[in-house]
Amino acid sequence: MDKFIIQTEAKRCLECKHKPCVYACPAHNNIPEYMSKIKQGLWEEARTIWHSTSNLPELCGSLCQNENMCEGACTLNKIHKPVKIGFIEKGVSELFKEIVDYPKDKINHRHLVIGLGPAGIANALKMAEYGYIVEAIDSNALLGGTVYNLVPDFRFDKSILNDIQHKFDRLGIKIRYNTYVGKDVLLKDLIHEYDTIFIADGLGLPSSVDIQVEHLKVYYAQDLLNKNIYSKKDLSAMLGDKIYIVGLGNVAIDMARTLRRLHKEVHIIYRRTIEDAPAGKSEIEAAINEGVTIHELIGPVSYKMKNKIKLLNCEKTCLVQSTTGGRGLVQRVPNSETYFQIDDLIFATGQKTSEVLFHDSGVVQTPEISPFATNYPHIFVGGDRINKNKRIVDAMVTGLTVANQIAKGSYETNH
Q: Is residue 191 a contact partner of residue 147, using CB atoms and an 8 Å limit?
């Protein structure tokens, strides 16, 4: 990345005293000070400022929905376009991708990370930087979690994950890949092997929608996007020409854009409006520009075969004001049924946790104590198991928070 281009964009920052971008960032990165250092050409100092609150700029800069967070809060939105904070974050991360923060001292303390998605990666790197002996277990063949499994290549350069792997190697973090905790190894056997454990296994199971399905196969975007299960050739042959996707999160958009590249006719149905969608606005715009049709305020009711034709029965919906002041409540509009003739139906309505990892271990989450706590003081949870928003930056923050808690010694190790 050209330093001049990065610096030119950084110079647009007003360095606001009230720092709206900082408060809008879940990691609370000190963006104005960061921009100030870049303007002065103090690149190492800029990197140090960012690294104090965020150790995955290569992921967050590429995949964060910045328009809904830091960039959305930028004061320049009122008069022009916001500072491209994500672009700058990613650019600076490229400049320092070979840099590793080695610990000053080694600590005789074994720490295990289960799951190497953004939360697990952030936690493992920070713990190793503190000097702990860090090991990790992941069910995949490469670190990254859902970033590795589900994010399409056209949206993210997977070679970045190799750069992160190199940091693991330099810091001496040992990884057991292709290993499922709960199947290949048991949590109950790991409990007493390590001084601390961080569980960040993510959301392993897709969520479905409560509709009537009569003897027809439905698919889940979480499975179809997983390159460990299906290739593009598989998808092209397996799915018909006219496909409907339920949901409007990032997984739905990634699924839709992937299918458009296979020359499928793709429709998305969503019970709310585009403004309410979990997916980033820029991703939605990209999908529409690529030919994806989005149907707002409509929800599925049933999926059945009639005269050898697959029919998706839907109803119109409307949003009514919530008495609690939150998001509008979805209500069906009476007598508003409409039918779509389709070839295949895909659910992209979120994911849920699998409890296989905890089987027969006696470990349970204790959110009444802390969102990260379990009934074992030395075992912590993080990532999407506890994140409401399911964003990369939120997952990273949980990993860093737990690492800092452990470093402060705010737990017991009698196990």
A: no
Classify residue 312: in a domain, yes or no: yes
pLDDT given at position 321? 87
Write the CA distances from 138 to 27, 262, 367, 403, integer angstroms.
Answer: 25, 31, 24, 19
- Dig out the tokens for 199 from the structure: 């569980």
Q: At what angle do helices 281-289 and 250-260 cross, to 10 degrees?
A: 20
What integer pLDDT is reported at residue 414 of this predicted model? Answer: 46
Question: Do 199 and 319 reside in the same domain of the chain?
Answer: no
Give the Cα separation of 197 and 373 in Å (integer): 11
113 near 195, Cβ under 8 Å?
no
Task: Output the domain CATH number for residue 267.
Answer: 3.50.50.60
* The two structure tokens encoding residue 184: 């290949």
Task: Compute the Cα dihedral for 341, 344, 347, 348 and give only its sign.
Answer: negative
Least Cα distance to 346 among 216, 233, 237 occurs for 216
Same domain, 365 and 241: no
Q: How far apart are CA 126 and CA 132, in angstroms?
A: 9
The enclosing H or E element of 4 equals helix 3-10
Q: What are phi and psi of 24, to 5 degrees?
A: -80, -15
Q: Tell me the pLDDT tens digit for each residue of 14-61.
A: 999 999 999 999 999 999 999 999 999 999 999 999 999 999 999 999
Q: CA 84 → CA 10, 14, 77, 97, distances in Å?
A: 8, 13, 11, 20
Q: Which helix (H) or strand (E) holds 198?
A: strand 196-199
Q: Is residue 102 part of a domain?
A: no
Flag whether 101 is in a domain: no
pLDDT at 74: 97
Compute φ and ψ for 414, nearest 5 degrees: -80, 95
- Confirm whether 415 is domain-assigned: no
Question: Alpha helix (H) ranges present in 99-227?
Answer: 118-130, 146-149, 159-171, 187-190, 221-224
From 329, 347, 365, the end of a domain falls on 347
Low-confidence ranges of the chain (pLDDT < 50): 414-415
Residue in the block written with tokens 């690149």: 43
Q: Looking at the structure, do residues 213 and 329 belong to the same domain, yes or no? A: yes
Q: Domain residues for 41?
A: 3-95
Q: Among 361, 373, 386, 65, which residue's Cα sits nearest to residue 201?
A: 386
